[in-house]
Amino acid sequence: MMMNNLYSNRIKELQLQILRNQFELISKNTILQLTILKQLFDEPKSQALYEEALSNEIIIDRLEVKIREEVAFSIFKFSPVAEDLRRIIAYQDLTTNLERIGDMTLNIIRFVRELPMSDTRLYEVRGLIIQMTDHVTQMVRNAVMSFTNESYETAVEVIGSDEVMDEMYHSLRALLCKLFSHVELQENDVQVLLNLEGVGHNLERCGDSATNIAESTIYLVKGSDIRHVNDGES
Fold first, then answer.
1. Rounded mean pLDDT, 159-186
2. Which pLDDT score, from 0 to 100, does residue 3 have?
3. 219 CB-contact burial (10 Å; exposed 0-12 / middle 13-18 / buried 19+)
4. Tens digits of per-residue pLDDT, 125-150?
């Protein structure tokens, strides 16, 4: 009986290691997608970078499907309880949010390819968007790190930094209003405005997904779900 339990525990640990490895892969590829985006600000028409982003998106999607399958298998095979169950559920939540970040980053890449990033009128806008990209990339890195290291403090830091992301997005919208509200817009101007708003909106949503990842860390570490706790509640 003891031998059977040891074997079963060993198989369970191997399964959890598979999930850890796949989470590491999808995390790296999601951050790579954000890195490609940053490069595209300097080379918005680069076909090589765009094709790399498309290939990377396929990898992220396949990893997301694989992790979901492994999560379902883990729950069915081992009937995990307590911390193991929280960890497995967290992997599914994290994977969903990383895949969303990948999708939204690809949306931004498509917007950027259509934008006249060298237009002097957009100099200030371009700078703010780059700041937002750097900030959200760091949010994602820290969110992943918080989960990997089971760091409650890092998770709380990520959640707090989302306020900065929201402020940047509001600043971008205010700047766009300032630039475009007092000019007679041509059809091309309208398209540029919509694309810029699309960039800002998707970056802000990436920040929300990074926050969700940090909340999953807190769920793992503390066993409490804070996603629907109202402000002011303990």
1. 92
2. 47
3. buried
4. 999 999 999 999 999 999 999 999 99
Across the chain, mean pLDDT equals: 90
Specify whether the CB–CB gap between 193 and 178 falls below 8 A.
no
Average pLDDT over residues 145-156: 96
Nearest to residue 208, comparing CAs of 132, 153, 106? Answer: 132
Contacts (Cβ under 8 Å, ≥6 apart) of 8: 78
Query: What was the pLDDT predicted at 183?
Result: 76
